[in-house]
Write the structure tokens for this entry.
Amino acid sequence: MSVVRFLARPMLASSFVVAGLDKLKNVDDTATQLSPLLRRATSSLPFPADDKLVARIIGAAQIGAGASLAFGKFSRLAATVLTLTSALNTFVEWRSADISTKEGREKRRSHLLKNVTLTGGVLLAAVDTAGKPSLAWRAEHLAMDARKATGMQLKRADKAVRKAVDTAVGA
């Protein structure tokens, strides 16, 4: 792991770990912010969703994925989870922000920019392969190598069959 990744991942993850701890500590506030979104989502689900349980799950997901990203374990999966929670957090904070005053609107904009920036950061981390080829690239090149090897084996087999036929006809 490069020095930049070694330093950047914990720095990026720290914001999510703290936000997750805050969500767990203030479950009632988080549930209140989530409730309009959950009411709309649960109308299409066959089961009711408990606002507080969802708030706890999101907080725990942020803590777990943040710690995983910070320690460099399952970094891409952790960054993907953080991207989803960050996008959800951005939407919820945007909708629930107080915009009745000029200061409230400025605070809303500031939080939006912070959240969009964090989402962009973890989105980059989600596609970071740490200098190694991605699984898709490896699979594509493995298939290409297999096609080449198969083609070469077919040519050798064709040559051997033609030689055997020529020998059998000439005998």
